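anyone seen this seq b4? input:
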Amino acid sequence: MQKAYVDPPTYTCEVKWIVAAVSVLALAGCAATPAPTPEETGTDAWSGAFDYQLGGGYEPADGVTIVARDRTDSPADGLLNICYVNGFQSQPQEADFWLNEHPDLLLRDTGGEPIVDENWPDEFLFDTSTEDKRGRLAEIIFGWIDGCAADGFQAVEFDNLDSFLRSDGQLDVEDNVALASALASRVHENFLMAGQKNAAELTGRGADIGFDFAVAEECYRWDECASYTDAYGEYVVNTEYTDDLRGSVEDMCADPSAPPLTIVRDRDLVTPDDPEYHYESC
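predicted toks r here
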């Protein structure tokens, strides 16, 4: 179900980031400061371990300092929490919302049918092809971003930045970059960090778009981790999957090209009570 729109927080005093194991937002003084950088969130968080919990939140393993969860979930206490937002495609459970309330914001084929992601056929691609449509999409997604902030997340990642590659040529990379820039700006207005999700071909433009760190999937499998680490340094989290590993987990973790914050998960990211659950951390 779509989250209700939440007005962005209004700060009448200075926002200061207190560096501890992870940052804590405290209020004092008179004027707002810019969004925090990864450096300001504390070295302990980025030198610990990561978990990708999009299939449902659960108690993180010992040593985990960074957790990514869906925007409809709650953040984990005491950790650096990344809020997952599908910024360029629809979520399966929200199909009726898009089809009934915003049908013109879905990209259509020549027969008028919504174009879906072939790997995730229950996700419709958003139509980012015009300034008007990008603006209306942004207004909806802004509400989700504001909800992430209100719920206590410290960062937001936007999935499917590369949807233009699945658009049958109807979308241009600049269409998605324009929307991504607007979304990153909204994240910063909420004093959160903005994360680039996948799209290794755009890492060189990440800083200009407004991204502060990266959330990669299978960068080791496809030999593209350097694209992320060259752009974001140590501020990269990466998830590999059990059903399509390149070599052994031991070899991957020993390879200096793999980001230190690399994990191996089951493809569906299920919770530990599911027999398919798998989690290993480098």
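Residues 131 and 229 are 32 Å apart (CA to CA). The radius of gyration is 18 Å. kinda curious what u guys think
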